[in-house]
Prior knowledge:
- The chain is 46% helix and 3% strand.
- It is mainly α.
- The chain has one domain.
- Strand 1 (61-62) and strand 2 (70-71) form a beta hairpin.
- Helix 3 crosses helix 4.
- The longest helix is centred in the C-terminal third of the chain and has 29 residues, at 121-149.
- 24% of the residues are buried.
Amino acid sequence: MKAGKTKQKKKTKRRKNEIDNRRPSLFQMELVRMINLQHPLVKLAERIDWKRLENELDGGFLEIPGASANPTRLMGGLHCLKHLFTLSDEETVEQWMENPYWQHFCGMKYFTREPPIDDPSLMSRWRRLTGDRGGESLLKETMEAGLRMGAIGEERPKT
């Protein structure tokens, strides 16, 4: 190395709640072993094209200043659940910690009692960062998933 130059290590900041396949602890059980795979949220999660959403929304992660980046699958999933069940951001986070179906829907592999995000206010910050584009992408993909499932029809409202 030349004098005056220092080699900098590339920082690899682990994203909180990054959806990964790390080995579970002895007492952790995979969500797919705990839940009914015929449950409507499981079926909906299977039909949503999460990769397309990630590609449309900045490659899967959005950096929120002052916070860890969270996967689009997690944040998008939380927003879908919030609107499906008409909850506040805080209520969504609370319910998520208690519900293995919600955790599976958001892409988690193992059940956890930890909150999915550092603070519920990150949901509103994520909405501001994704803007109209994020909401439209999420709504469009959810509607298309419903059509693929046959849960909603292609009928147009009469004018």
